[in-house]
Write a structure and sequence with these properties.
The chain is built from 3 helices and no strands. With about 110 residues, it is mostly helical. It has a domain at about 35-80. Helix 2 (about 25-45) crosses helix 3 (about 55-90). It starts with a helix and ends in a 26-residue tail after the last helix.
Length: about 110
């Protein structure tokens, strides 16, 4: 059965929404991801499985922290490139709007002054 890209996208969206609508789905996914990261770190520091379990746990904890730092650096690099791309686009020389119109004290601009 051949599907168009739109049909594939709709089917994937339905599957994802169904998955995440189940009770405990997010907690199960987080637990599975955490366990996978732990196994990966253990395999990285002790591929042959010859270290003492306490030593392996200590090294694996350091490896997990290093991996978390790598992920954070990658996120910061992406933020920097996205931010610089946003400001370098043509027509993007207008200042950003403030989230709150009451940021600075003063009378509202849309009311006539007396």
């Amino acid at each position: 059965m051949t599907m168009t890209p739109e049909q594939r996208k709709a089917r994937a969206r339905k599957a994802a929404n169904t998955r995440w609508s189940k009770p405990g789905a997010r907690e199960q996914q987080a637990a599975a991801a955490s366990a996978a990261m732990y196994r990966r770190a253990e395999q990285q520091v002790d591929p042959e499985g010859i270290l003492d379990p306490a030593q392996r746990d200590k090294l694996a904890a350091s490896a997990r922290r290093a991996q978390a730092a790598d992920l954070q650096l990658a996120r910061l690099r992406k933020q920097k490139t996205t931010r610089s791309r946003r400001t370098s686009e043509p027509g993007n020389d207008t200042p950003r709007k403030l989230k709150s119109p009451l940021r600075y004290p003063g009378p509202p601009h849309d009311t006539p002054s007396e």
